[in-house]
Specification:
Elements lengths: L2 E7 L5 H10 L4 E4 L3 E7 L1 E5 H8 L8 H4 E5 L1 E4 L3 E5 L3
Length: 89
């Protein structure tokens, strides 16, 4: 399997996003830096709109991820409910 990752700026807006990603991807590994938080995962990483909405208490458009996004690695598969990173063979 290959590793995928996503990295965000470290701030109050990204905290519930990171918590949601880690809750939905128990195999993911958190790498915290002074101004960045990076989440690594073997195989794939799934970000669910519903999980983020539960934590922030409002509607969330997955396009909002891009506001604090620094970088990512993997092929993106995205719809209104889910953002998935995985390497396609």
């Amino acid at each position: 399997m290959s590793t995928v990752f996503i990295a965000f700026q470290t701030n109050e807006d990204t905290r519930p996003i990171v918590e949601s990603i880690l809750a939905d991807n128990p195999h993911a590994v958190l790498d915290e830096q002074p101004a960045m938080v990076k989440i690594n995962a073997e195989g794939q990483l799934v970000i669910k709109r519903e999980s983020i909405e539960e934590r922030i208490g409002r509607s969330f458009d997955l396009q909002e991820l891009q506001i604090n996004l620094i970088t990512l690695s993997g092929n993106i598969d995205e719809d209104d409910d889910q953002f998935t990173l995985a390497w396609k063979n």
